[in-house]
Amino acid sequence: MSEALAGLKVEIAAIQADADAAAEGVARLADLPTTRARFLGRKGAITALMQWLGRLPADAKPLAGAEINALKAQVETLFDSAQARLDAAALEAALSARRVDPTLPGRVVARGATHPIQAVLDDLVDLLGRLGFELTEGPEVESEQYNFDLLNMPASHPARDMQDTFYLDGGLLLRTQTSPVQVRTMQRQAPPVRIIAPGKVFRCDADTTHSPVFHQIEGLWIDKDVTMADLKGVLTAFLRALYGDSREVRFRPSFFPFTEPSVEVDVWTGSRWMEVLGAGMVHPQVLRNVGYDPNEVQGFAFGLGVDRLAMIRYGMTDIRYLWENDQRFTRQFRGGLR
Ligand code: PHE
Fold it and tell me: Tell me, what's the pLDDT at 334?
């Protein structure tokens, strides 16, 4: 009996040593289950010992059973720690395979920027707003009626040829100026009127300083006694606020059918005069056309060339840069320039 137990102990020690070496020798996580089964599986060495137990005399069984259970627990612990070792190694390998390199340059996010025309428009609207002008708008597709007739330019008027017009069918056209918004506004509301109307205008014309699509801001101030002095005062204040007090500005007599008297205003660019706006006292006939009484109210109107102002502001030599979307150009305006 003690002899059988002694034999069991030898067997147990052998299995223990074998399991020790086997658990330690497993190099890959994938191999662990098979190796473990060699000892703890249904056909494993320890399970075989249990069968051996059956052949022992009854009084030896409790002791032998306890020995085998102790072995089993030990071998389980052995393989559990082998599992833990291999799990940790696998994690380590995975982590070092996709290690973060903090010295790598970040990804560059493409940033948009306000187009120079929009930047200038925003500034002008803001500035004129502070001078008391309210913002309004009119349609880009206009009727001949609004673009010409109501502005004192009948079909036979020579000034109608001055502007190369994109005509559409049915008496419609692409507006050649923002001045029709004067008429639309006065038709809609009784005086006093003090508005600005920015927008696109269209003329069949293209070179370094003319684009077929460009931007104007129309201004109109009508009240009981708005005079030519107000026109000069407001426009001078406006251009000084825009360019600083030292910028040279000149008023030249001019002609527009819808203003009388009329002026054109030039700004010195450093090398030449550039015309930036037309203006004048609103013609009595235009006031009558919208149902105003020229003996009661009067005022002035102006039309600003926004693209020209942008060219002067940014020192551009060719108006076409504004439309080409060449990033070497547009990138320079990132973040605004003022
Ligand atoms: N509409 C004129 C133009 O486009 C400018 C202008 C506006 C002149 C208002 C006088 C008054 O040239």
Answer: 63
Helix (H, G, I), strand (E, B) or coil at 267: strand
Measure 204 CA to ligand 1 centroid, in angstroms: 17
Ligand 1, pocket-test mutation among 161, 256, 260, most atoms within 8 A of CB: 256
Residue by residue, DSSP assigns 208-219 as: SS--SEEEEEEE
**In this structure, how many other beta carbons lie within 10 angstroms of the beta carbon of residue 171?**
11
Q: Are 194 and 300 in contact (CB under 8 A)?
A: no
Which band of pLDDT confidence, cut at 50, 70 and 90, is reported for residue 205?
A: confident
Centre of ligand 1 to C-alpha 278, Å, is: 5
Taking the centre of ligand 1 as the mean of its atom positions, its distance from the CA of residue 302, in whole angstroms, is 6
Is residue 165 lining ligand 1, measured as CB closer than 6 Å? no
Assess contact for 230 and 131: CB atoms under 8 A: no
Q: Which two tokens stand for residue 124?
A: 């002008």
The pLDDT tens digits for 83-132 are 999 999 989 888 888 878 888 888 888 777 788 888 889 989 999 999 99
Ligand 1 atom closest to the CA of 300, numbered from 1? 11
Q: How far is the CA of 256 from the centre of ligand 1 (A)?
A: 7
Q: What one-character-per-residue DSSP string does 77-140 give?
A: HHHHHHHHHHHHHHHHHHHHHT---TTSPPPPPP-----HHHHHHHHHHHHHHHTTPEE----S
What contacts 271, CB < 8 A, 6 or more positions away? none
- Work out the pLDDT band at 164, boundaries 50, 70, 90: confident
pTM, 2 dp = 0.67
Residue type, position 170, single letter: G
The pLDDT, as a whole number, for residue 326 is: 84
Tens of pLDDT along 17-44?
999 999 999 988 889 999 999 999 999 8
Mean pLDDT (the chain, rounded) = 89
